[in-house]
TrEMBL record:
Identification of the protein by name: Pseudouridine-5'-phosphate glycosidase
Short name of one Pfam family: Indigoidine_A
Family annotation (InterPro entries): Indigdn_synthA-like (IPR022830), PsuG (IPR007342)
Subunit note: Homotrimer.
Organism name: Actinophytocola gossypii
Principal EC category: lyase
Gene3D superfamilies hit by this protein: Indigoidine synthase domain
Positions contributing to substrate binding: K91, S148, A149, D150
Known role: Catalyzes the reversible cleavage of pseudouridine 5'-phosphate (PsiMP) to ribose 5-phosphate and uracil. Functions biologically in the cleavage direction, as part of a pseudouridine degradation pathway.
Active site positions, chain numbering: E29 (proton donor), K167 (nucleophile)
GO MF annotations in UniProt: hydrolase activity, acting on glycosyl bonds
Reactions that this protein is recorded to catalyse: D-ribose 5-phosphate + uracil = psi-UMP + H2O
Cofactor binding comment, as recorded: Binds 1 Mn(2+) ion per subunit.
Stated family: Belongs to the pseudouridine-5'-phosphate glycosidase family.
Length: 313
């Protein structure tokens, strides 16, 4: 089977063959590369996440918008482009896909837009780092009204997303409430606690726990057959040896929040600015944690995708 071009979407040959044969495919996002990790490091992570998916027996499909087309499965030159700071890729959330397609732009896709594109391509499992959520109010505000579109899209798109929870820069309690409202089951993967990205645990529990890829896959399949059309969130804590030290974490968080509050950074720029502060001020420890958790999440996503393919009637 060759590369599939239909309308505004181009699916790489390896991905379309795997999908046609009922094989395991894992979607990967590009915002984490273009806007979440520094140049150089991002390209290495782009390759290692794809390797980790393959090592677990699935086909990786990194998703982006290039030349005004939805691209599912990127080659090395495409990944170079996504990771090149001079290419200056826009951060495209779900609302931005129409404009980017019509205007022929390039862009990196967030969890929201990657989930939509994966679902349109027939991919049901997606592995990544951290989910967007409800932002905390600025000093003097009662609500930020900055709620990531990741939550709405998960509430209406039947894709299983594996991540390490949400960053402690967000309102974790409010994020969990919105996930409940949007009917998204949250499965703690070998944990009873909702993870906080750099830290294995937040103060909040998860409604359900699974301990194996097979059991996660069974839940995903059952949710798809009987559920309300929403996705499933599988939360997998950062590997213990890469967890950020608690005091360092709390200091960086306070500094980053103060920096954002004192600036006019808004909307989609908030997360990248906070991430940048963590990465520079932690002397790289937060980057190591970030890389380690993404690699672990895409491995778990691949194991779940393999189980789903095997459990297919
Ligand atoms: N959290 C991270 N790293 C990331 C992101 C979130 O720890 O790179 C990215 C993801 O692409 C996520 C997006 O979907 O940020 C959420 O952005 P916003 O809050 O603007 O919706
Ligand atoms: Mn936002």
């Amino acid at each position: 089977m060759s590369e599939v071009e239909s309308g505004r979407m181009r699916v790489a040959e390896e991905v379309s063959s795997a999908l046609a044969g009922g094989g395991a495919v894992v979607a990967l996002e590009s915002t984490i590369l273009a806007h979440g990790l520094p140049p150089g490091r991002n390209r290495k992570v782009a390759a290692s996440v794809e390797d980790a998916v393959r090592a677990a027996g699935a086909v990786p499909a990194t998703i982006a918008v290039l030349d005004g087309r939805l691209r599912v499965g990127l080659d090395g030159a495409d990944l170079d482009r996504v990771c090149d700071p001079d290419a200056d890729l826009a951060k495209l959330s779900a609302r931005d896909l129409g404009p980017a397609l019509a205007l022929g732009r390039d862009g990196a896709t967030t969890i929201a837009s990657t989930t939509l594109i994966a679902n349109a391509a027939g991919i049901g499992v997606f592995g990544t780092g951290g989910l967007g959520g409800v932002h905390l109010p600025a000093p003097g505000q009662t609500a930020s009204w900055d709620v990531s579109a990741d939550l709405d899209v998960l509430g209406s798109t039947p894709v299983a997303v594996v991540c390490s929870g949400v960053k402690s820069v967000l309102d974790i309690a409010a994020t969990i409430e919105v996930l409940e409202t949007r009917s998204v089951p949250v499965l703690g993967y070998r944990t009873d606690t909702f993870p906080a990205f750099y830290r294995r645990e937040s103060r909040f529990g998860v409604p359900w726990r699974v301990d194996t890829p097979a059991s996660a896959a069974s839940v995903v399949a059952a949710h798809r057959s009987r559920g309300p059309g929403s996705g499933v969130l599988v939360v997998n804590p950062v590997p213990a040896e890469h967890e950020l030290d608690a005091d360092l974490h709390d200091r960086l968080l306070a500094e980053g929040m103060a920096r954002v509050a004192a600036s006019d950074v808004r909307g989609g720029d908030v997360t990248p600015v906070l991430l940048e502060h963590f990465h520079t001020a932690s002397g790289g420890a937060s980057l190591d944690a970030n890389e380690a958790l993404v690699l672990d999440n895409v491995r778990v996503a691949a194991e779940i995708a393999v189980e789903l393919a095997a459990q297919r009637p």
